[in-house]
Write a structure and sequence with these properties.
mainly alpha, Fcf1/UTP23, elongated, rRNA processing, UTP23_sensor, 172 residues, 3-stranded mixed β-sheet
């Protein structure tokens, strides 16, 4: 509502933007009695970790920089009549990475795992390095190739090389 009020106050220059904003669902904000600027209203709606999973669509560089500082908020903008979803900010990527690692193993379990390894003597010592054992390999694949047949000489015909066999007659 604050964005629509701000667009109305700016006059006819932004009438088209006001019409576009009115097409979308209007969310109630906490300052509907005394409206504030649009960017302040949007920032107040995404506070506390963006509980309603809002996307922010803006061309304002100042607002987009403020949005990028908060993790987990998708940012949309327009380039040459095309809507573009901005790549996740480094804060968002770090936040997701932290969440994933915390979900795998809780912190108290990590501590108990370390204690159990120390107790059993499974902790790796830094000075000790293992060498990889060389395994026996198979034969050289190039030595396993089939032998090539010799080419026949051009002066001889293949039928002349073969001896003619005589048929034996049986005596009965």
């Amino acid at each position: 509502r604050c964005v629509i009020k701000e667009l109305e106050s700016l006059g006819k220059a932004l009438y088209g933007a006001k019409l576009i904003a009115q097409r979308f669902q209007v969310r109630n904000c906490s300052h509907h009695k005394n409206p504030v600027s649009g960017s302040t209203c949007l920032l107040s709606m995404i506070e506390d970790g963006n509980p309603h999973h809002f996307f922010i669509a803006t061309q304002d560089q100042d607002l987009s920089n403020k949005v990028k500082r908060q993790p987990g908020i998708p940012l949309l903008f327009i380039i040459q009549n095309t809507m573009v979803l901005d790549k996740p900010s480094p804060k968002s990527l770090a936040f997701v990475q932290k969440l994933q690692t915390n979900q795998l193993v809780p912190e108290y379990q990590k501590q108990s795992i370390v204690e159990l390894k120390e107790k059993e003597g499974l902790v790796k010592q830094e000075g000790e390095k293992r060498r990889k054992r060389k395994r026996a390999g198979g034969p050289n694949p190039l030595s396993c190739l089939k032998k090539k047949k010799k080419k026949t000489q051009e002066g001889q015909e293949p039928s002349a090389e073969k001896k003619k066999r005589r048929k034996r007659k049986r005596n009965r």
